[in-house]
């Protein structure tokens, strides 16, 4: 087997066999193992975050819409409750007026004619 990036066949332009060792496109790194371990660790953290938090990038990117939705629902509930209470007061006011009319009938208007 040859190393990645090398062909086991001679170079067509020069006719020279390939040189062993790292290719010029990938120079050796002194801490290649450390970089590999860090990359693996990062990949594992990203996968764990994706599993725990779904399609969001991370737990820090919390959706900001839910507080607004809850506030809107609360405001609508307060307005509906206020309308219901106002309607109930108006209905009770009409009932009280009807009861007063039944309990205290207005006297008929009498006209007194005095001869003068």
Describe the fold and architecture.
The model has no long low-confidence stretch (mean pLDDT 78). This protein has 116 residues and is an all-alpha fold. The termini are far apart. The chain is built from 2 helices and no strands. It has helices spanning 32-53, 65-103.
Short key terms for the protein model shown above:
mainly alpha; 2 helices; 53% helix; 116 residues; rod-shaped
Total number of beta strands: 0
The number of helices is: 2
Task: Please compute the radius of gyration using only Cα atoms.
Answer: 44 Å
User: What is the H-and-E element order?
Assistant: HH
Helical proportion? 40-55%
- Give the biggest sheet: none
Structural class: mainly alpha
Shape descriptor reads: rod-shaped
Q: Strand percentage, roughly?
A: under 5%
End-to-end separation = 142 Å
Ranges with pLDDT <50 over ≥5 residues? none
The residue-averaged pLDDT reads: 78
What's the topology here?
Blueprint: H1 32-53, H2 65-103
Task: Summarize the structure in short.
With 116 residues, the chain is mainly α. The protein contains two helices and no strands.
């Amino acid at each position: 087997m040859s190393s990645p990036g090398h062909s086991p066949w001679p170079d067509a332009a020069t006719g020279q066999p390939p040189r062993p060792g790292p290719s010029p496109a990938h120079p050796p790194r002194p801490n290649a193992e450390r970089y590999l371990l860090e990359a693996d660790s990062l990949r594992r953290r990203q996968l764990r975050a994706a599993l725990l938090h779904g399609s969001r990038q991370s737990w820090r990117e919390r959706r900001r819409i839910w507080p607004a939705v809850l506030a809107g629902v609360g405001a609508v509930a307060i307005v509906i409750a206020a309308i219901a209470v106002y309607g109930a007061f108006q209905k009770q006011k009409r009932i009280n007026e009807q009861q007063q009319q039944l309990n205290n009938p207005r006297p008929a208007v009498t006209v007194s004619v005095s001869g003068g």
